[in-house]
């Protein structure tokens, strides 16, 4: 049997020898008490190199193969009593690891001390490929569907102390026929680091030189091919628009600009406040069910640390008010979470089961910031309908031809090469190099993450700014290109009109 395990790695501060604890220990138990092939997805620290070497030696000595693990530039998490610092465990690396889409697994064994999106992605893959799943949890997060999941609740403290539940884990795996009662002698062994170094050393030197030259070459070519190149926007001002208040692209553009100018008397929607960045683990506070565009039920995971339910429920009211119902009818969940100030402001999770809009309660404390965030997230809902993808989820390599995002990617990203379509999991130097070599193509570095974020930020500028008519920079050409679509031009009018009317009413009640 081939088993994929996924679990976090923490340093136990109560020990003097930097003992490793966390969900990864389940993989050790599964491998040492069976002859199954056991792979481990976790995040290995590239900063704590000596600890990483020791951890890999420990894993291999028990028969665990750690080669698919992600690498992150962050120290390992720390557990000191009830105090938890997540460290490397909060990074989302599962889609960038080398477990690959080509591995056929017979079983997933997961713990809930890895990044929540990684956990959800693995669950989605398991359901998609009909792979059985066993989940061991200490209650780090609970807002996931347990349908078709063999869930074992070890504790509900939220502290990933899996080492305190080793016997319960052993009994659960034993009862399910996954392991033997005692450690087994494995016929094969995971090669030691020394063997690997000796075997790969020469190859790495050669490959490293080749890859280094290739990357430099690619970055050089990116520098040459970045910019507007052959990109142009062909806006027909006389093209008809199906809208009650304007009939052509030119008319609707002017009407949208009028709404934008009027809105400026109430709120500066272009305002982008400075934020400092806090490194906190993501905590989900409340999950609401949405039916007929109304919040009809809720599950509280943690007490709100600030604000009130009414204050944050008003965000959903504004989302429903600002955007036409025809485009948001798939949103069936609204979540309140936080990972500290300045990290993830919000996100949209699109699956076959429905769409979730999640807002960070710390990052959206001013209306201008909130409005910009809502427009950005609406752009994802608009451009990433689940029908546009071959499988559940919104992976770019699963886009169907002829869809909005497929055509946007082909038009504005093909010049970079396939290897630069998804940059989320690249190293910080690689992302910075890509952005710096194509600085005129993007308004901000985050926009260069992938075409999905590019479209969302382009759409935001399309809504909150007048059309950049003369600029030859690609970032402005992309905004102009949205005026080629009469439906988008009409949508801009609707959104700005709705926000303007809301602000007028808010101003009248405050007076």
Describe the structure.
- This protein is an alpha/beta fold.
- It folds into 3 domains: 2-190, UDP-N-acetylmuramoyl-L-alanine:D-glutamate ligase (3-Layer(aba) Sandwich), CATH 3.40.1190; 226-273 and 391-511, no CATH class; 277-365, no CATH class.
- It contains 14 helices and 17 strands.
- The protein has helices at 25-32, 49-61, 116-128, 166-175, 193-225, 249-263, 309-322, 325-328, 367-383, 404-413, 428-437, 451-464, 474-482, 486-510; strands at residues 2-6, 10-12, 20-21, 37-41, 43-45, 64-65, 70-72, 77-80, 83-85, 107-111, 133-137, 150-153, 283-291, 294-300, 331-338, 346-351, 354-360.
- Strands 6-4-1-10-11-12 form a 6-stranded parallel sheet.
- A hairpin with a 2-residue loop joins strand 16 (346-351) and strand 17.
- Helix 1 crosses helix 4 and helix 6 (249-263) runs parallel beside helix 14.
- Keywords: Membrane, Transmembrane, Transmembrane helix.
- The chain crosses the membrane at residues 196-222.
